[in-house]
Write a structure and sequence with these properties.
This protein has 373 residues and is an alpha+beta fold. It is built from 15 helices and 17 strands. It comes from Allomyces macrogynus (strain ATCC 38327).
Amino acid sequence: MWPTARSSTCILVQRALSAPTARRLGSTAAAASVATARTRTLVPQLRPISKVYQPTTPALVGRLRSAQSFSTTAAAAMFSTKTAAICIIGDEILSGKTQDTNTNWLAKQLFDLGVDLKRVEVIPDDEADIIETVTRMSRTYNYVFTSGGIGPTHDDITYASIAKAFSCTLEVHRPTLEQMALISPKMMLVSPLHTDEDRAAAEREPATIVAPSHTDPSSMVAMRMTPARLRMAQLPYPSTAHFTPGLWVPLCVVNGNVHILPGIPRLFQAMLAHYLPDLANRDGLGTEPFYRRAINTNRGEGDIADALTAIQDHYTADGIKIGSYPTFGAFKQGGYRVCVTVVGRNVPLVDEVAQAIAVAIDGRQEPLQTPKH
């Protein structure tokens, strides 16, 4: 059963300013003044569905906005928020041949770590596009993740393009070759080394691995890549490479924050699942995660829009984000009509906003979604 709407058109939101907020306001008197204004702030509530909803008046919206105690810029400074961007590279994505699933998976991981994903772009296998996109993202966001374009074929140009973007050279990465020889020896061209001179000559070749034969460990062989496969071991220099157990493909980091990954979802996810915990420990991620609470309602978006706008305006400065998502077919099958979500870093505040919304839109709250990390 859905909650029954109250007869009044407004609810009273009781809020108390925290000590840090009071300090930001500059004085006890100022804090008390804003606390009083917030306590008296009215948030619009819908009438029962059988009655006509009276939308929020401009005067009420003005009161809500004037009650905010500090700007969104100040609110952003409350948290040492890390930001991220994702660059999906591949003509096959843009043509519809392949569906991108890496963005959705990584977005969930970043959300749980409290990293604010600000931008996602899908671009073609084009050098100019790659250079422009990654340099702009690297300047703007703390972390950049690229997906795709590091295979052995002619259209795999991500390594070379990113190297050019940051004035790096493209060089054979010996540890990657060694991992290839160890994990996927069938990818290598194997030549026996009959003499010490043969071995010495092979060891001088930068793209050759000298190792015991897999069939006869007492003899040495030279393991080389075909020119096409060698492309996958030519990384931008300088850079850092992070290996995942069982995989020879490295997660290559250029310019300190550009993370180059393969487009194959299985590899993309395995490599980041191994890497992200180390990144979180290094940069202190996950200490200020995001929390989400959903409120489901049988009212239409057009009926609840004014109420949501007023509540969002009131809480924007606190870093709260409210989203509204119609479910369409689910409602016809006995489900709810609209799902409203509240996202923030402060659990009591998220709960407070969710309760205000639930009352205002005749909604039912779902359990709090907490980080998995």
